[in-house]
Specification:
about 45% strand; 8-stranded antiparallel sheet; elongated
């Protein structure tokens, strides 16, 4: 049986992740997606991010995204990881507001290096109102009958 066929003997776990697990996962990833509304259109764009305490920061240029996000726009920020072969994965979703960081001096030592070309001299901070996460695991019955649900790595 390959990974795309239905297996009636498979066990599936869907688990809610604790906020601290979500923050750990956020800190381990370099790229996430920020969703927001600009000119009446919903946009979701990839950004390199950094966890600063219990907030997310990223850098951008003087773009339309910067103009929309710098003054308290409502945003969603998402990261995830999947393993299609084993049908496992996790997702973290932050909902909150974005604002320009007006005094980014303490972020100067941040390991954040944007992948996009051009100047990225404006910092945006996402302050969360909610932090949620879920993991899913589908593990087929092993011969010893012992099943373990998927857990994101440390």
């Amino acid at each position: 049986m390959n990974g795309t066929e239905f297996d009636p003997d498979a066990h599936v776990w869907i688990e809610e992740l604790e906020p601290e697990v979500c923050w750990r996962l956020l800190a381990r990833r370099l790229l996430g997606r920020v969703g927001f509304v600009a000119d009446g259109e919903l946009l979701v764009l990839p950004v390199n991010h950094h966890v600063d305490g219990h907030s997310i920061v990223f850098r951008t240029g003087r773009t339309s995204m910067f103009e929309v996000l710098r003054d308290g726009a409502r945003v969603a920020f998402e990261i995830d990881e999947v393993d299609a072969f084993f049908e496992t994965g996790w997702s973290v979703l932050i909902k909150g507001t974005a604002n320009e960081v007006t005094e980014p001096a303490h972020l100067a030592g941040s390991p954040l290096h944007p992948w996009a070309p051009g100047p990225r001299d404006h910092w945006i901070r996402i302050v969360p109102e909610s932090v949620t996460g879920r993991s899913i695991s589908r593990q087929r019955s092993p011969t010893d009958g012992h099943l373990l649900p998927y857990m994101p790595p440390d």
